[in-house]
């Protein structure tokens, strides 16, 4: 059996070739993304009917998401990581449903924004996948930039609790954040193709997380773009 860094049978993946594990990671990512989309849409539709119930569900989902994120950094057993990943998918999808519900409240415009964000996210993900498969680029140089960019984004988001940003500022932030997480996806996709991972489940988690954040920030980008244009 090949090196355990690629997630062999002992990790719950009955594959003996690295390319099979890569395919399994991609399948897990796509299935999780599709499942999250379904859960988010169902949540968004049901929230207006059961607001009190979903207030409790959101609190539970937030707690689960925090626990799973902590577990992401400390879990070592593959089965545990995979279980935490499933918990993160469900909890993040429920919380995303709350965001989608706010956009659906805008009526047809909100539906267009969601559809547009989905389309752009799919185009970005597909484009990055094709680029990485065809060119197998060395993007290791992005690591420090991504870390710095992530820290700066967190600082800006924390500052937003104390400073009221104008719509144009959020438009710029949303654009830069969408670019940042697209680069994260490029970095993680390159790691996947070059077998630079020790946990298949954590690798799928990385890819799912990248896609989720790309979608969120593109959705905000489209919203603030619309808000800015409507004021002109």
Key traits:
single chain; 232 residues; mainly alpha; 7 helices; 80% helix; globular; disordered N terminus
Note down, in words, how this protein is organized.
The chain is mainly alpha-helical. It contains 7 helices and no strands. The chain has helices at residues 18-46, 51-74, 78-104, 108-135, 142-159, 167-193, 200-231. Helix 1 crosses helix 7 (200-231), helix 4 (108-135) runs parallel beside helix 6 (167-193) and helix 4 (108-135) packs across helix 7.
**Number of H/I helices:** 7
Q: Main beta sheet, described?
A: none
Which outline best applies? globular
Run of helices and strands: HHHHHHH
On the 0-100 scale, what is the average pLDDT?
90
Q: Which structural class best describes the helix and strand composition?
A: mainly alpha
Low-confidence stretches: 1-12
Assess the beta-strand content as a share of residues.
under 5%
Distance between the termini: 63 Å
Helix content: over 70%
- Give the strand tally: 0
Radius of gyration: 19 Å
Topology:
Blueprint: H1 18-46, H2 51-74, H3 78-104, H4 108-135, H5 142-159, H6 167-193, H7 200-231
Structure summary:
The protein is mostly helical and 232 residues long. It has helices at 18-46, 51-74, 78-104, 108-135, 142-159, 167-193, 200-231.
């Amino acid at each position: 059996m090949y090196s355990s860094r690629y997630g062999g049978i002992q990790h719950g993946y009955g594959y003996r070739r690295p390319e099979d594990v890569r395919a399994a990671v991609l399948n897990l990512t796509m299935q999780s993304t599709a499942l999250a989309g379904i859960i988010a849409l169902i949540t968004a539709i049901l929230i207006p009917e059961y607001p009190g119930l979903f207030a409790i569900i959101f609190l539970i989902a937030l707690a689960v998401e925090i626990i799973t994120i902590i577990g992401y950094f400390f879990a070592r057993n593959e089965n545990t990581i995979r279980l935490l990943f499933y918990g993160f998918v469900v909890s993040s999808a429920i919380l995303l449903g709350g965001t989608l519900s706010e956009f659906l409240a805008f009526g047809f415009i909100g539906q267009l924004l969601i559809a547009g964000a989905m389309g752009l996210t799919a185009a970005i993900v597909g484009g990055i996948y094709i680029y990485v498969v065809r060119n197998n680029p060395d993007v290791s140089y992005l690591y420090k930039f991504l870390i710095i960019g992530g820290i700066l984004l967190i600082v800006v988001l924390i500052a937003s609790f104390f400073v009221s940003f104008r719509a144009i500022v959020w438009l710029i932030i949303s654009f830069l954040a969408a670019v940042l997480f697209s680069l994260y996806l490029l970095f993680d996709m390159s790691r996947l193709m070059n077998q630079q991972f020790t946990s298949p489940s954590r690798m799928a988690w990385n890819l799912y997380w990248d896609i989720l954040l790309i979608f969120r920030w593109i959705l905000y980008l489209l919203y603030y773009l619309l808000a800015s244009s409507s004021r002109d």
